[in-house]
Design goal:
Number of domains: 3
CATH class of the largest domain: Alpha Beta
Distance between the termini: 22 Å
CATH architecture of the largest domain: 2-Layer Sandwich
Strand order of the largest sheet: 2-3-4-8-5
Structural class: alpha+beta
CATH topology of the largest domain: Gyrase A, domain 2
Shape: flat
Number of helices: 12
Largest sheet: 5 strands, antiparallel
Mean pLDDT: 86
Low-confidence stretches: 1-31
Number of strands: 9
Length: 345
Amino acid sequence: MRMSASRKSNDDTPRPDSGAEPGAQPPAGGRQRRLLSEAQEAEVREQRETRTATRRVTVPALEEILYEPLPVLDHGFVRVVDYMGDDAAIVQAARVSYGTGTKQTRGDAGLIDYLLRHRHTTPFEMCEIKFHVKLPIFVARQWIRHRTANVNEYSARYSVLDKEFYIPAPEHLAAQSQANRQGRGEVLEGAQAARVLEILREDSAHTYAHYEEMLNQREDGSIIDEDRPGLARELARMNLPLNIYTQWYWKCDLHNLLHFLSLRADPHAQYEIRAYADAMLETVKRWVPITYESFAKHAMEGVRLSGPALEIVRRLLAGEAVAQDDSGLSKREWTELMVALGRES
């Protein structure tokens, strides 16, 4: 059973307007940073200026941002580079029919809501989307655990990695949680926070300098010492830290994308991967708005109850006083249930 539960948005990722120059982030402190290389920016401009006649379904709202990078973290981005299908494709597959299936948007919405509510997932697999993502390696390693997508990553065996490292904003520097072994606690402040940032910046610069020295090659491709060979790229990369940025193309069907987002856009997910999930949620909202509405209602704003938890709800509705000791629930499940019901903070 799913019940409505409030969810705060954790997305403080800036969004570029659709007319922004590709690769440029909105000003911060009077300066702009580039998300894409010059070659990538040229490619985006060419793609955005190209118009191709097609009989395939297109989605105007998604076309508005097609190819454009949506900034995430300090140097990262997410951009849609291709997609197939729309809300009507889900309805068509569900009805095993031709054309748009039902003619009324209300009918489409009702069917999609039914499919999501009852976890009939196959029709959602008829839609696919491909993203180009730039992300820190430690986020990529967490992300790749979702083994339901096609992925092709930048190869540091063939190319030199860019000198770009993720340095958290001060508000995201936090101590280890005392209640959650994989979560954060109180935000670090003052001299301690400043020292952590100093270490991160120094270590990033130091390791990259050694990376260039081992390669005998600078970031711009110039040779440092013509009289000595450099170490192979596949070996030189092993000294780099996990906060260096990588890039990949990630293609996934809508069903598995929604599963990914239900986990990674959740408030309990690590902030860094949640920032990417929140940006991707915005693309889903543009791409399949009817599906997004049902997904938000049932997955993002709802909570699934176990049989014993549902029985507790029934007892409470009947006016019975129920305590954790006689509920049959563990203390953690009891607390989660009470929070979902708005009975405890």
